Amino acid sequence: MIKNVLSVASEIFPLVKTGGLADVVGALPGAMAGIGIEMRSLVPGYPAILQAIRSKKEIAELDREFFGAKAQLALGEHDETGMMLYILDAPDLFDRPGNPYLDAEGADWSDNHRRFAALSYAAALLGRGLDKGWRPQIVHGHDWQAGLTPLYCRELCPAAATVFTIHNIAFQGVFPAELIEPLRLPPSDFALMGYEYHGQIGTMKAGLFYADKLTTVSPTYARETQTPEFGMGLEGLLHTRRQDFAGIVNGIDTDIWNPANDDVLSATYDAKSLGKRAVNKTALQRRFALQEDQNSPLFCIVSRLTEQKGMDMVLDSIDHIAQSGAQLALIGTGARAFEEAFIQATTRHPGKIGCIIGYDEVISHQLQGGSDAILVPSRFEPCGLTQLYGLRYGCVPVVSRVGGLADTVIDANDAALEDGVATGIHLGSIDSQGLRQAVDRAVSLYRSNPKWQTIQSRGMTRELGWGKAAKRYQGIYEAAFAAKSIT
Ligand code: ADP
How many angstroms does the Cα of residue 302 sit away from the middle of ligand 1? Predict the structure, then answer.
């Protein structure tokens, strides 16, 4: 029986978040606790984490030369959530302002290899029993930042089973081969059948090669990543390992995301009182300087502003959206050119297009609670969370038919509408024209209430919590452990 699992990640909600990874890593411990598994998380000692965990116990002083930094491993409980966190407190590596991955200019921190190799190495030390009071049976790493974990585990704690989860295969953490020695990697494994990736060190590749079991965050993405179109060079390896590779759709935290008692909304509501959303819509229209008009369908976007997320397609379609009598409210950050283009669109269409360039958790809730629909026209999407929040909030998702978007949103075609199972709208094709057609379909459905309300309330009654996923992870942990015992 699996009782103890160590989760290793570079971000964790509510302490440090740049995207969906943090939401998942922050929610898993609670979900696993519900089925009798104690999950602790190992995270970097960023300022935000050290400040939030006030009472910490020192577990170990790591040797002075720990990846060129003085480091200490501490254990603390996060009061608000009860999460148990191992913190790699290494000021040289993590005590810096701003983004976990990027400097003030938006470039990768030049020592990211060292920072996240150190995190991965510390995970293996915990796997070996560094904390005398608690030892994991499973070490579960997330994304490239924890990609070297299974390899270090093989070296340091061969008895622990390892699981590796891909949250986005587009970020692979590839570094020059000269770093093999400083990163304490075994030179003999620098090979095709190892962590070598086109002559360099592939940290995500290492995770995929050495972990006992692999997962990603939706069944469709698990299939897609085995193809050249989506696998970004790792499709062959994933296809070879397909027996060990599963797709598990993320849950959402249904307490944090609950329109019935979300105190940042002007009006709370549930599937039976959708009319109350009007108050939230008006508040949003004010906030985003849009015309206060209940009859204009209000689309929102909560997103990184990148091509992955289809933001170029949105920009191409923005005049069309404004001319169709709809409105768009956007919050996001990303590429400077996208940010500027969205700001420019607001001046072209005053009262119809509103945007906030920034990152704000409260506004993201308010957008879900007051907009009529959320646009997620991603080119690829491992799972996607904003469409799940949309379902929960009656903010109808308009999505590309890829990855987790395809797995979680049922298109409102005639048959689905008739059967009452539709929960959103799929783009017919992932391009600007496909987006415009999907927007038009949404506008016309919106205008044909009560169909729209049926779609909204169907989404709101979907089971979106972590229950199902937690059981699937448990199964993966058991299987990883069993595989380890056999070999
Ligand atoms: P990804 O991790 O690829 O960025 P996801 O949909 O999986 O995409 O997760 C994005 C998460 O980040 C969601 O919780 C979403 O609400 C949040 N988010 C994205 N951009 C913003 C923003 N500008 N302000 C607030 N929350 C945001």
Answer: 6
Q: In b/e form, how buried is each residue of 227-258, taking b as 16+ CB within 10 angstroms?
A: eeebbeebbebbeebeebbbbbbbbbbeeebe
Spatial separation of the C-alpha atoms in residues 414 and 394, rounded to whole Å? 20
SS (H, E, C) 29-72: HHHHHCCCCEEEEEEECCHHHHHHCCCEEEEEEEEEEECCEEEE
CA–CA dist 448, 169 (Å, integer) = 40
Report the pLDDT value the prediction gives residue 486, as an integer from 0 to 100: 65
**What 3-state DSSP class applies to 360?**
coil
Contact 371, 300 (CB under 8 A): yes
Residues 6+ away with beta carbon under 8 Å from 267: 276, 277, 279, 280
Q: Are 411 and 426 in contact (CB under 8 A)?
A: yes
Mutate to test the pocket of ligand 1, among 385, 388, 391, 405 (most ligand atoms within 8 A of CB): 385
The residue whose CB lies within 8 Å of the most ligand 1 atoms, and thus the one to mutate among 386, 389, 395, is: 386
Query: Which pair of tokens denotes residue 264?
Result: 């940042």
SS3 167: coil
Mean pLDDT (whole number) for 214-231: 98
Q: Does residue 39 contact residue 5 with C-beta atoms inside 8 Å?
A: yes
- Give the pLDDT mean for 429-438: 98
Checking if the pLDDT of 200 tops 70, the result is: yes
State the residue for tokens 């299939």: 223
450 preceded by a cis bond (ω within 30 of 0)? yes
Q: Are 280 and 369 in contact (CB under 8 A)?
A: yes
Cis ω on the peptide bond leading into residue 47 (within 30° of 0)?
Answer: no
pLDDT at residue number 66 = 84
For 2-11, 61-70, 397-406, which range has the lowest pLDDT when averaged over its residues? 61-70
Query: Residue 255, Cα to own-chain centre: how many angstroms?
Result: 18
Ligand 1 lining (C-beta closer than 6 Å) = 19-21, 23, 168, 302-304, 331-333, 359-361, 364, 383-386
Using CA atoms, how far apart are residues 148 and 477, in angstroms rounded to an integer?
Answer: 19
- Please say if the pLDDT value at position 71 is more than 90: yes
Rounded-to-integer distance, Cα 111 and Cα 116, Å? 9
Residues 122 and 73 sit within 8 Å (Cβ to Cβ)? yes
**Sequence-ordered list of residues with C-beta below 8 angstroms from that of 184, at least 6 positions apart, any chain:** 67, 117, 121, 152
Name the one residue in this structure whose structure tokens are 């190799």. Answer: 117
Residue 246 φ/ψ, nearest 5 degrees: -125, 150
67 φψ region: left (φ > 0), alpha (ψ -120 to 50), beta (else): left
